[in-house]
Amino acid sequence: MIICDFHNHTDFSADCETPAEKMIEKAIELGLSYLCITDHMDPDMQFPGMDFTFDLEKYFSKHKEWRHTYQNKIQILTGIELGLQPHIAKDLSEVLAAGTYDFVIGSVHVIDHIDPYFKEYWDGKTEFQGILRYYENILECLDAYTDFDVFGHLDYVVRYGPTQDKSYSYHAYKEIIDEILRKLIANHIGLELNTAGLKYGLSFAHPQIEVLKRYRELGGEIITVGSDGHKPEHLAYEFHKVPSILKEAGFEYYTIFKNRKPEFIKL
User: Is the full-model pTM beyond 0.70?
Assistant: First the structure.
């Protein structure tokens, strides 16, 4: 059994309406030992009607309250999901300087000021070009900022492509994905296995298993597990599939973080 969910959201995130207490109670019901809450902090996120930033002082205060309230039932860890863009490194540094975190995810949701969730991102591009530009942008983000612990949902863009994963493969983008993986490893940044890919109808959890295998072959060791849940029913989504996926990719363990230091749990 996977004993933790290291990617999930509460109503601190602009795209989530679920109070943290509901997420925590569900995690307890599921028998999880750890819940690391990782709300969205996306400075300069251009998403109509939504502000993907929040009050960090209130966030830390609520985390302290949750840890105390549920201390005998589950360990609540303080995380955050940073939305990476090449021009906002200073903003992200300020977010991390605001308090103490157990875990930091770095994710790319915005490419050239637009989320691939929007059809406009794909206008004037072939599907291959849109996906390639996403990976190019990741490299640009990594050149600008690397103060995070794992990279989130590496092939996120595939969720919103015109044909999703019907014509997508790691091998079509092998050269640039390998460059990304090498840069992550060189900076001691891990990957997450994000089961939301299955929730969105893909044939794989993010990232595709070939990417996980390649990350392991290149010497990558840090692998966290998260559902990217925004509702209680999404917590630990399809986690029963995770051990076999990780073992097939060459892992004998998965990772949790406390005080931004990795701890390894045997599968």
Answer: yes
